[in-house]
Structures are given as structure tokens and as C-alpha cells.
Prior knowledge:
Layout: H1 2-36, H2 39-44, H3 46-75, E1 82-83, H4 84-90, H5 94-120, H6 122-128, H7 131-158, E2 163-164, H8 174-193, H9 198-203, H10 206-232, H11 239-246, H12 248-263, H13 265-275
Amino acid sequence: MTDVVEKNNASFMCTLYVVLGFISLACNSMNILIIISSRDVRRRYLYLAAYNVGEMVNAISYILTGFGRGRENDLGTLFTPTTSYDCFTGKFWTHSLIIGTEVLAYTMILITCERFFAVLRPVSYKYIFQDNNKIIFLAFIPIACTVSLLMAWLSSYTVRDRIVNTQHCFIIHIVAFYISLCSFVVAWNINRKLKSDNRASVKHNLVVWIAISASTAVLVSIPSFVMLIRLWTSIEFDDIVVSIAYSMLGFVSIVNTILNFIFHSQFRRQVASLMHIETSSSYSGMNRLPAVAFIGHRH
């Protein structure tokens, strides 16, 4: 009976990952299409486009994980032991789990640093964050992800004989959490320096941006927190709880797309332009509200 429950829970997890992955992939593909459809938008929101690419990589990781674990579940091998090294070298979804969250985290800290210079060092900002320099900064992200993969391989190799109880091959995102936390600290520091100037804080939507940075750090840390508890204590979480914990970032990317459409007039205009329809004035009262995904990119 227990085996049947575990298999059903695993089936739910795999189905959730695949469905969420495809929906998130569609949402972020639309976001990128909106950005690249206009030269001005593309120039202003380059880092947002990179963030959406990271969201797409994360969505692909959900799909790969869902299909991979689903295959193991169908074969009846998902709940059989394996080694840490085999998890990294023998499973095709573990690498995407690492890259998906780290691309998001590295892009988030680039966005936050851009905000720091735009608000507190405007003269330096115009020099440091020129269009060509932005591309150079983005080039460091795949390099950093490659280093992370090499470190992950080395970590798995040093404990290559360690036995894990199942072939889920979970990943604990320690690096992504610390990077996201650093983004929050930078955003909080900007707000602290401008706390005497309420107009500047409102202009740059710093309170909302701090909330976004903090929530990103929390959401990235939830899967690691759940897995560390599972690893270091006798508390067990079934696959339903684990899958929901790992799905948080995917859900947020979908919600962000919806909020962008509702609250960001330029986003709606680009959608209308692509679909060759006239923009509706029914949202005109909402144009003053900040969109979640665009909040850190206004100059």
C-alpha cells in the first residue's frame, strides 16, 4: 500500500513539473518576444530579457525533471538506491536544476547592481552600464554557471560512493540562495541611503524592489530548506510537498507575466501591437501601478 501511495505521489510530482514547465515556458517566451519586438524596449530591458531566458531555462529544468523522474517511476526504479556520483553523471535533469536557478540569481544581482548605480551613482551608471558593457556583464553568467557545474561535479566525485535512498536526485541550491540574498542586501542598502528622500524612494519604487529581492531569496531557499531538513533530520516530506516547494519559482514567473499585462501599459501596448489590435483604455487607471518584473528597470 505504501509503495502505491509513493508511486502516486511521484506521478503527481512529475505531472506538476511538466505542466508547470510548459506553461512557464510559454509565458516567458511571450515576455521575450515582447521585449525583442521593439528596439527601444530591447535596449532598456536587456537584463529583463536575460532574466526571462533564465526563467525559460528553469522551465525546461521542470520539464526534464518531470519526464526523467516519471520514466524512473514507470520503470519502478525511482525508489531504489543509487550513488551521489551517478545522480550527477547518470541523470540528465540534475544539471538543468542547477543552471535554472543560478541564471535567475546571477541576473537578479546584475539588475540590483544596475539599480544601485542608477539611483546612487548616476554619473558612474552612464559609463559602467553602457549597452556594450551590459552584454559583457551578461557574458559572465554562463561562465559562472559553468564553474558551478564543475564544482557540483567535484562535490559529487569526492563523495562518489555515498548512497542515496532514491533516484530523485535532488539539488540543494546554496549558491543561488546566497546570490539572491546579496541582491536583497544591495536593494535594502539603496533604500537606507535614500530613506531621508521619500520622493526618490517612490520614484524608483525601492520598497517594492526590496520586497521582490527578499521574496526571490526566500523562494530560492525554500527547496534547499526542505531538502536540508529531510537530509539532516528524521522528518520526511512526501513528493507532493517537495514538488510544491520546488515549483515556487515557476509559479511566480507565471504570476509575473499576468501582473505585467495588468499593471504595465507598455507591456500591453507591445502585446496589442504584436496581435494587431487596438489597446483598450480600460486599464488606464492602472498605468500608475508598478509591474513586478519591470520594476527594477526603469530609468
